[in-house]
Amino acid sequence: MKQENKTINLNVLLGSLFLGYVMVYIDKLSVGISIVSISKDLPMSESTKGLILSAFFLGYALMQVPMSFAINRFGARKVVIGSVLLIGFFDFLFGMSPSVQMLLSVRLLTGMLAHSGYASASSKEVIENFPIERRTFAKGILISSSGVAGIIGPILLSPIIEIKGWRFAYTLLTILAITIAIIISFAIPKRKETFKKEANKGISILTVWKNSTIWILFAGAFFINNLLYGLNNWLPTFLTSYRGVSLTQSGMISSAVGAFSLIGAIGGSYLVGRFFQGRDKLVIIITSIIGSLLVFTSYFVHKPFIFIIVLGSSTLFLTLAFVTLMAIPMKLFDGQSFAPSYSTIASGGIIGGAVAQLVIGFLVERSGTFLTAFIYFFILGLLTSLSLVFVKLDSTKKA
Questions:
Q1: Is there a single domain that holds both residue 85 and residue 27?
Q2: Measured between alpha carbons, how far is 278 from 392 in angstroms, rounded to an integer?
Q3: Roughly what angle, to the nearest 10 degrees, separates helices 135-143 and 145-164?
Q4: Cα–Cα dist 261/68, whole Å
Q5: Where is the Major facilitator superfamily (MFS) profile domain (predicted)?
Q6: CA neighbor of 73 nearest in space, from 115, 117, 21
Q7: Within 10 Å of residue 294's Cβ, how many Cβ atoms?
Q8: What confidence tens digit (pLDDT) does each residue in 8-26 have?
Q9: What is the mean predicted confidence (pLDDT) over 42-63?
Q10: Domain range holding 294?
Q11: Are residues 315 and 372 in the same domain?
């Protein structure tokens, strides 16, 4: 849907989308942080905890592609604002939940309706407003919000949950989400549609899926996110259960590693956009190999400071690989094809995140050691680089 653009302050636009992303990532982290407190009020088994976490990813993956058509139909601005408002709405319901069944249902709906459209819609705002040479950096800024959320989320939520309780914490998250949605509504101006014919006609998802590049990028997103989500979600268990680190120390280590991720997303994406234009494929192949090798090496490092440096460096390289990979669709696709193309690729990453939890749990339980998990991480990095070997970015035309 083409629109009549008003003059937009790109810094304000990017800043507001960044705030929305911070809300998205804090909400993703919130259940992992609060689940121990929740289980004291609503007793549940470890498998039930995992089910609540997995329900979010299931809903997220199911609605990725359908939500892309909503973006084409209603516009990216409405989906961005609506997503953040729905996060607030579902956080309120989650905090009011009287049973485990409701917790499960709310997280499923949160993934389906609140989270599934934000990444694609915000990316569409970027491609509609930023020149192509600035899109990798812009995407890097947005994804760097995961590092910011990873640093401030545990620091802010943990004491609130401990002192005031998890239900109060989710009330605050509701207020935060509504506030950010209001800010975004002012930062992204409404645009007048010049014509609706193209939007009404739409594009067939089968037409989109005929492009082999989409499926190669889908595989790359699956492998890299499998690695990143697996590492982030299982790191606390590894440190506390297998390294004898306290929960507080584990949180400090995770925050320090998150800082490296932030540097990789912002600094790395700037360098790629500035000095490696047109060489995205090479950047992903090299950084994913280096990152996975460093992850594997970190298993054998026992001194906390050196461990932070090695694992943090690996996260920096892997985050840069992820940012660069997810910026590729913003350079290849536009118009009606962008949202379904990007959503399909993003679905690979979401499925990878869900699969990681199951595979790592199985490997550690069967082997009795986290070494098998770190070998798995190394293999995922190699598979990420291998999958990108087959993509031909130069020959891919914009739709």
A1: yes
A2: 11
A3: 20
A4: 28
A5: 13-399
A6: 117
A7: 23
A8: 788 898 999 999 999 998 9
A9: 79
A10: 203-393
A11: yes
Question: Tokens 């390289």 label which residue?
Answer: 317
Last residue in a domain, options 202, 220, 240:
202
Q: Indicate the residue type of 178.
A: I
| Residue showing tokens 């914490």 | 169
Place of tokens 């516009």: 75
Q: pLDDT digits over 125-174, tens only?
A: 888 888 877 777 787 788 778 778 878 877 788 788 878 989 999 999 99
Per-residue pLDDT band for 194 (boundaries 50, 70, 90) equals very low
CATH of the domain at 116: 1.20.1250.20
Q: In total, how many domains does the chain have?
A: 2
246: left (phi over 0), alpha (psi -120 to 50) or beta: beta
Q: Is residue 211 helix, strand or coil?
A: coil
Provide the 3-class DSSP secondary structure of residue 18: helix
Higher pLDDT, 298 or 238: 298
* Residues forming a β-bridge with 3: 193
Please give the structure tokens belonging to residue 37. 């407190």
Same domain as 281, residue 173:
no
Strand runs labelled E in the chain: 3-4, 192-193
Locate all alpha helices (DSSP H) within 144-268, ordered by sequence.
Answer: 145-164, 166-187, 197-201, 205-209, 212-237, 247-263
Of 117, 111, 110, the closest CA to residue 71 belongs to 117
CA distance linking residue 250 with residue 168, whole number of Å: 25
